[in-house]
Amino acid sequence: MRIFLVGFMGSGKSYWGKLWAQKHEVPFYDLDEMIEKTTGKAVVDIFEKKGEAYFRKLESAALRSLAGEDHCIIACGGGTACFDGNIEWMNEHGLTVYLHASPSLLLENIMKEKEKRPLVKNVNEAELLFFVQKKLEERLPFYERSKIRLRVEDLGEKSFDKIIS
Q1: Between the N and C ends of the chain, which has fewer C-beta atoms within 10 Å?
Q2: Rounded to an integer, what distance in angstroms lies between the CA atom of residue 3 and that of residue 5?
């Protein structure tokens, strides 16, 4: 089964995806890493030099390139589900899992890696919390189309077992 992890930046898609894939001995793909490998550029540089629209095209192409992978876990970017009919495509081609987290937890996690996050790189903490709340509100209708919803605060190594059972 192809499993797509969706949710806001800082929700732990890459962290949990890698852990669960390793535990269940299935391939793990991170869309951002795939794009960086393909282009030879960091996601933050693509955003800054080519813009978000260009990045979203690369992201959709990377996502669809995994159509032939039958058993894997894919960590999607925070906005992947919201563009180009991606959430519908993912629902047709696998199991979508929304990793839901509170804005305060997301803020805490984002602050740890702020420089790697193109949309928030130059924002202070107060502005960042407002940004997270606003963007999360915009993206929620897409995230909620996922087939499964898991609270990040409740996740553990065995959480994935419940998804596949």
Answers
A1: C
A2: 6
